[in-house]
Specification:
The protein is an alpha/beta fold. The chain is built from 18 helices and 30 strands. The protein has a 13-stranded mixed sheet with strand order 2-1-12-11-13-14-15-16-17-24-23-19-18, with helices on both faces.
Length: about 525
């Protein structure tokens, strides 16, 4: 699984149009069954043949159980090879597959299972007795309950697939993921895209990788460092497997072990969120230099704003392999290379193959804004596909203007069409009539050496309307209080205008995030103690 020393350029990748024979996981599994497909978090390798056989058996078992194309299954499990097999089996069987965040409370999980209409759920014995028991009873519509391992009330996955053939499927993946928007501000909504059109879909799925110079079976090794219940990590694994690249799975993220995996397996591609960069850079210099990372070819980050100083430090350490992607569960978007970003710090790039075809900035009335003016970011998907929020046509219609769609992000374009983001419309703080973007404050605050994590929200103010309030998680051993608040204000005052400085600080034991770094703002809005005013 060692990576080759060089890779094709993005320009070359764009010239090499894929044909019907060079992509598709089951094609690779049939042709080279002994090659490694997945290394699970225990270090156990799964061959293409082994994983492909489970995919084929499971897809046939789903069909035999009466699951018809366009019906829905759900997966609630930690990262493992069987998770990927269940997902691939679902899409090869033409089903919608819902990844479920297994950290959710039982009532939140029940909402997803009910709302999605899932007829089957695949879980893992590692979820534990209490959570598994709640999954058994939470939804009567779920007719088929399968378990990776053994658990009361569930059919073991190996027993479920045993009667069915492991022969290669004569099929292309027509099903797809149906992801739920994360419940950071309210109940999540399912984003449903139309069923795929078989092999042509694989070309679209892998187009983004080809743009980065990643070609089928070209010595790449993909590291999945995030939870598979989030769309970006799961799609990253799907793309890798369909292009013949082995996938290394992590189920508990930590900074130094990540470097160990990069060196051990010659990792070339991965997806990360900025919080991972922050933790990696807080390692001692001697620890960082201990591990070789020269195998890396394309490290894509997204999911949250990345502080410019953090990104520059990562580029200095890992080289020009750091790419940034912007998009949403609803639609792909833009991408920018390290070289482009260094020329235009802060940009999230321009459209790319497999992403958006065009980007516009519009005001609330739908008027297109000129370069430099902040407005709603609208994207036109290159695929032409239109999503729907399941069961909510009004919310779906509100996102669209013609073929362009917005998820509520605010930003602007420069004269060359590069997109710059400001914040989410719902998160903007309007103070004395001026817009303050929490992401800008957070990006500055997290750079303080004693700040482990932070979040900024608006809170009501009698005179100004709203003012920023900072929730701060300090590094171990650091203490909150007036002295720390004064230090943080001094630090921020060197980087931000006075109007942007938080009016209150609250020191919290942990900023509430899911394991992929997504902030649960609704949890911070609950009444708390411990605020410190400047």
């Amino acid at each position: 699984m060692a990576a080759r020393a060089s890779s094709p350029s993005p320009a070359q990748a764009r010239r090499d149009e894929p044909d019907d024979a060079d992509i598709g996981f089951l094609r690779f599994a049939a042709r080279d069954p002994h090659e490694v497909a997945v290394v699970d978090p225990t270090g156990r390798p799964w061959s293409r043949g082994e994983l492909g056989a489970l995919v084929a058996r499971l897809a046939r078992a789903f069909r035999a159980a009466g699951l018809a194309p366009r019906e829905t299954i759900a997966i609630a499990a930690p990262n493992c090879a069987e998770y990927l097999a269940a997902y691939l089996a679902g899409v090869y069987a033409g089903l919608f597959v819902v990844p479920v965040n297994w950290h959710l409370a039982p009532n939140e999980t029940e909402h997803i299972l009910t709302d999605s209409g899932a007829r089957a759920v695949v879980v893992h014995e590692r979820l534990g007795e209490h959570k598994l028991a709640s999954l058994v009873s939470c939804n009567e519509r779920v007719e088929l309950r399968l378990c990776i391992g053994r658990a009361a009330g569930f059919v073991p996955l190996d027993a479920f697939v045993a009667p069915y053939s492991s022969a290669a499927l004569e099929a292309s993946p027509t099903g797809r993921m149906m992801a739920y928007t994360s419940a950071t501000t309210g109940r999540p909504k399912a984003v449903r895209l139309p069923p795929r059109d078989g092999h042509r879909a694989l070309v679209r799925i892998t187009a983004g990788n080809r743009f980065l110079g990643i070609l089928p079976e070209d010595g790449n090794v993909h590291l999945c460092a995030s939870m598979l219940y989030h769309p970006a990590p799961l799609v990253g694994c799907e793309m890798a497997l369909h292009m013949g690249h082995p996938v290394v799975l992590v189920d508990v993220w930590d900074s130094e072990p990540l470097l160990q995996l990069i060196e051990r397996y010659g990792v070339t591609t991965t997806f990360m969120v900025p919080a991972m960069f922050v933790r990696l850079l807080k390692l001692r210099e001697a620890v960082r230099r201990r591990y070789r990372v020269a195998s890396l070819r394309a490290v894509v980050h997204g999911g949250a704003p990345c502080p410019p100083e953090i990104k520059r430090a990562m580029i200095e350490w890992w080289g020009p392999v750091v790419w940034e992607a912007y998009g949403a569960t609803e639609t792909p978007g833009t991408v920018v290379s390290a070289v482009e970003w260094l020329r235009r710090p802060g940009t999230v790039g321009r459209p790319y193959p497999g992403g958006a075809e065009a980007v516009k900035i519009m005001d609330e009335s739908g008027r297109e804004l000129p370069p430099g003016e902040v407005g709603l970011v609208y994207l036109r998907p290159r695929s032409g596909e239109r999503f729907e929020y399941l069961g909510d046509p009004e919310k779906t219609r509100a996102c669209y203007r013609g073929d362009f769609v917005t998820v509520g992000d605010l930003g602007y374009l420069d004269e060359e069409g590069y997109l710059f983001l400001c914040d989410r419309r719902t998160d903007v703080i309007i103070s004395s009539g001026m817009n303050i973007y929490p992401a800008e404050i957070e990006m500055a605050l997290v750079q303080h050496p004693l700040v482990r994590d932070c979040a900024v929200l608006g809170e009501p103010h009698a005179l100004l309307g709203e003012v920023p309030k900072a929730y701060v998680q300090l590094e171990a051993g650091a203490a909150g209080g007036p002295a720390m608040t004064a230090e943080l204000l001094r630090f921020l005052g060197e980087r931000l205008a006075a109007m942007k400085l938080p009016k209150r600080f609250e020191y919290v034991e942990r900023v509430p995030r899911d394991p992929n770094g997504k902030l649960y703002r609704r949890l911070l809005r609950k009444p708390r103690d411990g605020s410190v005013a400047p």
